[in-house]
Amino acid sequence: MRKLTYFIATTVDGFIGAPDGDGDFFYSHLDAEFVEHLKAEYPETIAAQGRAQLGIADTPPKRFDAVLMGRATYEPGLKAGMASPYGHLPEQYVVSRSLTTPPDPQVRLISGDVAARVRELKARDGLGIWLCGGADLATQLIDEIDEFVVKTYPVLAGTGMPMTRAGFGVRPLELTGVTTLGGGQIVSAYAVRR
């Protein structure tokens, strides 16, 4: 059975974006060591445009063969002309109530009962499913997430978009790995205890 992994960038105080959801400020905290770590460990999480620039366009998926995005996460790339930002993955899904036709043939739309659809995807053979974002989608899928991989950047935001809007509820996690990088980034992996 495939795992759903919420692989997300966050500030030290737990925000994945500014109050309007913009996460571009994270790009100013990418250094060579961190980029090399992503290329080696999570190459499929780098968008197609970045993969070409980094010389890993043909690198096969290592951990995930599917990506799941909310409409707000997908929209900035779409506006920039990237209708298929993760075309190197066999499966790209966008959760949206407003889109009725996929902007690209490689992108599949999900609406309605998202959790039920994700359970179907998890039951298929393959690598993992990457929950790319955002907070609202993570909230809808909080009980379907099997693993959190949190890239903590050395920045404090004070306020912004939280990792989820699930409200208070203690959900036990087990730390399965930590990588500390020279630029101050920490990549922590947690399995959800069921």
Write a brief structural summary.
The chain is an alpha/beta fold.
Q: Which descriptor suits the 3D outline?
A: globular
Strand content: 25-35%
**Amount of helix:** 10-25%
Widest sheet, order of strands: 5-4-3-6-1-7-10-9
Total number of helices: 5
Determine the structural class based on helices, strands and strand pairing.
Answer: alpha/beta
Biggest pleated sheet? 8 strands, mixed
Mean pLDDT: 95
Kindly state the number of beta strands: 10
Q: Any idea what the radius of gyration is? A: 16 Å
Following the backbone from N to C, one meets helices and strands in this order, namely EEHHEHEEHEHEEEE
Outline the structure in words.
This protein is α/β, with parallel strands linked by helices and 194 residues long. Helix content is 21%, strand content 28%. The strands form two sheets. It has an eight-stranded mixed β-sheet with strand order 5-4-3-6-1-7-10-9. It is globular and about 40 Å long. The mean pLDDT is 95.
Please give the structural blueprint.
Blueprint: E1 4-10, E2 15-17, H1 32-41, H2 48-53, E3 64-70, H3 71-79, E4 91-95, E5 107-110, H4 114-123, E6 128-133, H5 135-140, E7 147-152, E8 161-162, E9 173-180, E10 186-192
Parallel strand pairs: 1-6, 1-7, 3-4, 3-6, 4-5
Antiparallel strand pairs: 2-8, 7-10, 9-10
Features:
two-stranded antiparallel ribbon, about 190 residues, about 20% helix, globular, eight-stranded mixed beta sheet, 10 strands, alpha/beta
